[in-house]
Amino acid sequence: MSLIASVWPRFRPLAWFAAVFFALSTATRLALLVATGDGVGFAPSYWLYAFAVGAVYDAATFVYFAWPLVLFLWLVPRRAYEGRFGRAGLAALCFALVFALVFVAGAEWTFWDEFQTRFNFIAVDYLVYTNEVIGNIRESYPIGAILVGVAFATTCLFLAGRRWRRPADATSTFAQRSVFALAWLAASVVVTFALRSDLKERTGNEYVNQLAGNGVYEFFAAFRASELSYPRFYRTLPGDEAFAQLRRLLQTPDARYVSDDVADITRDITADKPERKLNVVLVSIESLSAFYSGVYGGHPSLTPELDRLSDESLRFTRLYASGTRTVRGLEALALSVPPTPGESIVKRPHNENLFSMATVFNEKGYVSEFLYGGYGAFDNMNYFFGNNGYVVRDRAAIAPEKIHQANIWGVADEDLYTLAIEDFDRLHGEGKPFFAHIMTTSNHRPYTFPEGRVDAPQGKRESAVRYTDWAIGDFLRRAKEKPWFDDTLFVITADHCASSGGIASLPVFRYHIPLWIYSPRNVQPGTFDRIVSQIDVGPTVLGMLGMSYRSRFYGADVFRLEPGRERAFVGNYQRLGLLRNDTLIELAPARHVGAVTPDYDKNSPQPKTALDPQLAREAMSYYQTASYLFSNGLLAADLAGKADVARQ
């Protein structure tokens, strides 16, 4: 009798599980495809690609996912397998595996709805913070009904084809089953080394590329890629050349290098106006896309308060966020550094004592604060800011009786602003100027806020935007009554946009965020219409204050930057972009370097364009050197001005 004939009765449940697995995977892909709407549309070639390539990734995932069942079928002795233990154990394991599949399918739907992508680094990050994530799920969705639905669907699938799961094994020996298990192990090894997540990214539509993947596979691929070595995965320049290029790019009319060391980016910044010791309040609003605001083209506008503020503010019309997560926005605003690949610096080891906005303000005699509406242990925020010159105040500093409303992410924005005003009153009373970075939370799922503030239903993103806008207006009205108001610069922007996915790999329109600088006594209203990177916000504010200081920032004061040198940095955890001269240079793992024409206004394909070698070298020098300097401890606040570059 052949080996296959001998082991087939024992491993027949594996065929049943394969049918269930592929049916659910295909149904999930179809549901997500329909959810993209016009993002893919009726394009037969795209559909064929998504399902054909998707079947490959499904098969690879099945090889991994089925291991618990393979082990059970391999190891349980024949007598036990056909007895009560075998029947009960097999049934329980199969039910658990199917339940997991159905649950993951539902989770993928909600994740796609929020981020327009399969599981990625965001899902990996969220897994670390189970309290916030589970709390968010409980507050956002009817968990009881969902679990009942998952259990019902699991039961239906479990009962279907149950005769294929009946324990039967008349002839197999342990040695024969071991051959099968060894073959499964060999298949696992082949899949591990022959398949990568990025191999599916072969179309010009990122939705299609994502649909061609498998959520479970993508989750573990993102987990493995959370720490990406730039020199290992990306195109590089020789070390001296990269830093020489960077020094040229960072050279501005207001800057003078303090050293001839090619790897030292330390510069003395000389202001062109007298210094004004104004307070600075930097408000980074959760997920505030520019298109929510009427003055940025939103229709209808969800931000009437900010729209009215525009007539009294300096408004920047073309500001682009560095990334798609809060920690990327915080990194850009605090450190003025491009988004290095993998995890944000905010969450990486050895991120203490970095050159930051607080470094500059503290040397000028300011008190620097980071104020957050949630618990700052999330995303390592308290540790990062607390070890980089900021006094940290989070939700724990707010007395319960002062909280009007809270959810798992934090207190209502108005309560955070009350904490801020109390701190500003105290600091002003002590005669201390202050720099405060306020990070809000209300514009985040589950989108709940105090009743009676805006005429909008709870639980809707648009409603949360309206409340966020109301709260900033209320904050400024209260601030106007304070003695420190006339001497304060209010800088109002976003950490990132509301959505990150799109047809393009780096959809530029998704990175467009607003920026208002408001101080009636000190800032002339108007608009600034050149491209600005999020990493430029800090140096530009310092320039407006007339501050001369020693800098290790990558960003620039955009008012001192010569016309034509504008650029912005946009990225996700793997793909890095340099936006300049209406071209987007893209760097990606496997040493990919490409160029596309960005679409600033809508979700559309960004066609490939001829690669400008000089722009490509500029992109590589920015990202390569930023990764090198951080990894080697050379972004520190207390360097004496000397750095040593690896001569590669």
From TrEMBL:
It is found in: Cell membrane. Pfam families: Sulfatase. One of its GO terms (molecular function) is hydrolase activity. It comes from Tahibacter soli. Keywords: Cell membrane, Hydrolase, Membrane, Transmembrane, Transmembrane helix. The keyword Hydrolase applies. It is a multi-pass membrane protein. This is Sulfatase-like hydrolase/transferase. The chain crosses the membrane at residues 47-76, 88-112, 141-162, 174-195. One of its GO terms (cellular component) is plasma membrane. It comes from the Bacteria. InterPro entries: Alkaline_phosphatase_core_sf, OpgB/LTA_synthase_biosynth, Sulfatase_N. Residues 279-547 form the Sulfatase N-terminal domain.
